[in-house]
Design goal:
The complex is a heterodimer of chains A (about 325) and B (about 300). Chain A has 13 helices and no strands. Chain A has about 325 residues and is mostly helical. Chain A is globular, with a radius of gyration of 25 Å. Chain B is mostly helical. In chain B, α2 packs across α14. The longest helix of chain B is centred in the last third of the chain and has 38 residues. The chains are: A mainly alpha (about 325), B mainly alpha (about 300). Chains A and B meet through α1, α5, α6, α11 and α12 of A and α6, α7, α11, α13 and α14 of B.
Chain lengths: ~325, ~300
């Protein structure tokens, strides 16, 4: 098993290097540099002084030196540079939002799996019945539904029309920090975006689980278990589910990163102050350092997510280990 | 494939050739696909609705003078549906129906173009890497893995903002990473196909590899490809609308279903001017649902074990 893990890690290094190079070139060719926005409309800055500063900061060096410095700053001190529009470090700005996105992702994930696993199992178990058909129809619907459309409809129905949930933000500004009220307000704000994300995310899990269960039902060991007289519920919970859950575990890593990165639409529509929302705002104000840092971070997270999924799979499923 | 047994060298007389052609037609993918869609009434209805919407969008838009339709008219701003404007007007005083027709046409055109580009690149890269295999295949697949780590949506938005919006760049970016999924699936299939007897036989006869790929391997992958493409089309419709919704897709002056939808990001519009955003939302949903139902039938046709007929 360790061999597989080490091998995966070794593949990861050149991949991360390539991704960082890619993002660097993107950043390199984008308008603006480290000095953009640093002085604002300061009348004392002459072009000569700016040029001098640029040379001092090494912005005229060849690209590979700049790349080296850039990657070293990120790896050694997590320094992604400074924002163009707000005179602050990019890391601080992102750090403020990270917690919100993380909470949303976690809540969505929990909802997603707790909706999808029972539905998938029921659909697989009662194949061909009305319940199964209804679940399959639901998956069609959820698969067809573009995120934007569902989010708007949810916001309209539950936010505006019924008024059950707040329509924007992550917490009520009037709620005192640290109180129980603060916590409930937070959860209240989370529900609508999380449900939207979870409903869309269930499709894949339900489809896989249903197909896997239908497949495993006919395998020899299930027949053996049945003929020994193991009760049906136990056959499902112990024998079938354990094997059917494998593909779902392997996508867990992807699911996590997908939630962290794919929340752009949802956060934007629900005005939820997270990473996705920050990304869109920073693009509207043309604040490229933030965007570049976010792109690099999400690529890194995706890589980690896939790695995690692969490792989990080798732990659970001995068949795929490298000999 | 199934028609191998009828392909024997003795068949030579015109009658036999005719018979052979008829036999071939019977097992052709299009034929099977059609039967499969006909057998599944839901898919058939979905196909009719989808084609209906597409044709309406493209034909009706020819009756509309685009310049006049998109012209800002301050006197008719935000009017509720009435006899003059059946679906009301938008924030620029333009008839929502006109915007819907032109927007559907634009959104669909882009989705079709992007799907086409993605299919071409994905199939070519996938088939060649899968068929030849070896070190180049390994290297390309590692590169593909690396590319798929990049956050697609963010990348499109960032590049468009940094380098300015042009139609070419927009379509290029939307296609730039979409081919990866297709490439992976096609590669696996091409790998399997490349090891089958008919390919070895063809090779022994001296057929060049390129000819084998284009005349034998790719036609055998059409069934798989059509399933992926229907889903890709649905995805691309959603992607264009999403990007336009965020303000990074088609420019504000150009009608798209996303532009109309984006009006709903203002709470007042969402709450009190439903006629502006609900119709485009419903059209998008209908299109996506129809494509999905059709793709189910296509999927069954592509996989002989699941066929209804």
């Amino acid at each position: 098993m360790w061999k597989t893990v080490v091998r995966r890690l070794l593949i990861l290094i050149p991949q991360l290097a390539a991704v960082s190079l890619f993002v660097f070139f993107l950043a390199y060719n984008m308008p603006g540099d480290a000095l953009t926005g640093a002085f604002g409309e300061d009348p004392n800055m002459t072009p000569e002084m700016l040029a001098e500063l640029r040379a001092e900061l090494g912005l005229d060096d060849p690209w590979f030196q700049q790349y080296g410095r850039w990657i070293w700053n990120i790896v050694s001190s997590g320094d992604f540079g400074r924002s163009h529009t707000q005179a602050r470090a990019v890391t601080d700005i992102i750090g403020e939002r990270l917690g919100n996105t993380f909470r949303l992702a976690l809540f969505t994930l929990i909802l997603q799996y707790s909706i999808a696993i029972p539905l998938g199992v029921i659909a697989g178990r009662k194949r061909g019945t009305f319940v199964d058909k209804a679940i399959v129809f639901y998956t069609f619907f959820a698969m067809a539904m573009p995120t934007v459309v569902l989010a708007l409809l949810m916001l309209f129905t539950f936010g505006f029309n019924l008024g059950w949930f707040p329509i924007r933000g992550s917490v009520d500004v009037l709620a005192p920090s640290g109180s129980f009220e603060y916590f409930t307000s937070r959860m209240h704000h989370l529900i609508l975006p999380a449900v939207t994300g979870a409903l869309l995310g269930t499709v894949f899990i339900i489809n896989i689980l249903r197909a896997e269960i239908i497949d495993t039902q006919n395998s020899d060991y299930v027949t053996t278990a049945r003929s020994k007289g193991v009760p049906a519920s136990r056959v499902y919970s112990r024998h079938i589910l354990r094997n059917s859950v494998l593909p779902i575990v392997s996508i867990l890593g992807f699911a996590i990163t997908g939630l962290l990165t794919g929340s752009v639409f949802i956060e934007q529509i629900f005005s939820y102050p997270g990473i996705g929302n920050l990304f869109v705002t920073s693009m509207i104000t043309r604040d490229f350092p933030i965007a570049n840092a976010l792109i690099l971070m999400t690529s890194f997270l995706t890589a980690m997510g896939t790695l995690l999924g692969d490792i989990l799979l080798t732990i659970i499923d001995p068949r795929i280990r490298v000999r | 494939m199934e028609n191998d047994k009828v392909l024997s060298p003795e068949l030579g007389t015109p009658d036999e050739k005719k018979l052979l052609r008829a036999e071939k037609r019977k097992v052709s993918f299009i034929n099977i696909l059609w039967k499969e869609i006909w057998a599944d009434k839901l898919a058939f209805v979905a196909l009719v609705i989808f084609v209906g919407i597409v044709l309406t969008a493209f034909i009706w838009s020819m009756f509309i003078d685009t310049d006049e339709a998109v012209r800002v008219n301050l006197r008719t701003q935000n009017q509720a549906p009435s006899a003059e404007f059946t679906l009301g007007t938008d924030n620029m005083g333009r008839d929502v129906i006109d915007m819907l027709v032109l927007g559907s046409r634009n959104s669909l055109s882009i989705a079709f173009i992007v799907t086409g580009m993605v299919a071409i690149v994905g199939v070519l890269v996938g088939v060649f890497t899968g068929f030849y295999g070896g070190r180049a295949d390994n290297l390309i697949m590692r590169a593909v893995d690396t590319l798929s780590m990049l956050p697609f949506l963010m990348l499109v938005i960032a590049v468009i903002t940094a380098f300015g919006w042009t139609m070419f760049l927009f379509i290029f970016l939307m296609s730039s990473l979409g081919w990866i999924g297709i490439c992976r699936i096609i590669r696996t299939r091409a790998l399997q196909q490349g090891r089958l007897d008919y390919v070895s036989a063809s090779k022994t006869l001296g057929t060049p590899n390129v000819v084998i790929i284009f005349r034998e391997v790719i036609p055998n992958l059409v069934a798989v490809l059509s399933t992926i493409l229907t889903l890709t089309l649905a995805n691309n419709i959603g992607l264009e609308i999403g990007l336009t919704f965020l303000g990074f897709g088609l420019p504000p002056g150009t009608p798209s279903l996303g532009t109309l939808l984006a009006l709903a990001s203002v709470p007042v519009v969402m709450e009190h001017r439903m006629w502006q955003w609900l119709p485009p939302a419903l059209i998008i949903l209908t299109l996506a649902l129809c494509v999905n139902f059709v793709s189910q039938a296509v999927n069954r046709a592509a996989d002989a074990r699941q066929r209804l007929v």
